[in-house]
């Protein structure tokens, strides 16, 4: 499971995207799940990081889902029209 930090804003986005991509490459299995339960302070950069994770997962032939996405971030994803690209993990 890929774990997002408590804070993910523009300042942390590049390092976080690199860390998650590296974790994704070393993760076995056909499904990548990003755990967003710790995420409390964020901006739209968090969506960019999640979308980058999704692209990386798909490039590796894996499915991608997000677990416990903060309701405000889910709403922001809807406003940007990308909510369907970040399905809720089951």
Description:
With 90 residues, this protein is α/β, with parallel strands linked by helices. The chain is built from 3 helices and 5 strands. A 3-stranded parallel β-sheet has the order 1-3-5. Strands 2-4 form a two-stranded parallel sheet. Helix 1 packs parallel to helix 2. It starts with a strand and ends in a 10-residue tail after the last helix. The relative contact order is 0.22.
H and E order = EEHEEHEH
Q: Please count the beta strands (DSSP E, at least 2 residues each).
A: 5
| Sheet with the most strands: spatial strand order | 1-3-5
- General shape: globular
Task: Provide the residue-averaged pLDDT.
Answer: 96
Strand content: 15-25%
Q: Which structural category do the helix and sheet elements fall into?
A: alpha/beta
Distance linking N and C termini: 13 Å
The biggest sheet amounts to: 3 strands, parallel
Low-confidence region ranges:
none
Indicate the radius of gyration in whole angstroms.
Answer: 12 Å
Can you count the helices? 3
Percentage of residues in helical conformation: 40-55%
Observed structural traits:
90 residues, alpha/beta, 3-stranded parallel sheet, two-stranded parallel sheet, 3 helices, globular
């Amino acid at each position: 499971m890929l774990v997002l930090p408590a804070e993910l804003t523009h300042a942390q986005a590049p390092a976080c995207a690199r860390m998650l991509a590296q974790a994704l490459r070393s993760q076995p299995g056909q499904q990548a799940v990003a755990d967003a339960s710790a995420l409390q302070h964020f901006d739209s950069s968090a969506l960019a990081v999640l979308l980058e994770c999704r692209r990386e997962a798909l490039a590796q032939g894996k499915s991608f889902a997000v677990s416990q996405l903060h309701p405000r971030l889910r709403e922001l994803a809807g406003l940007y029209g990308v909510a369907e690209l970040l399905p809720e993990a089951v």
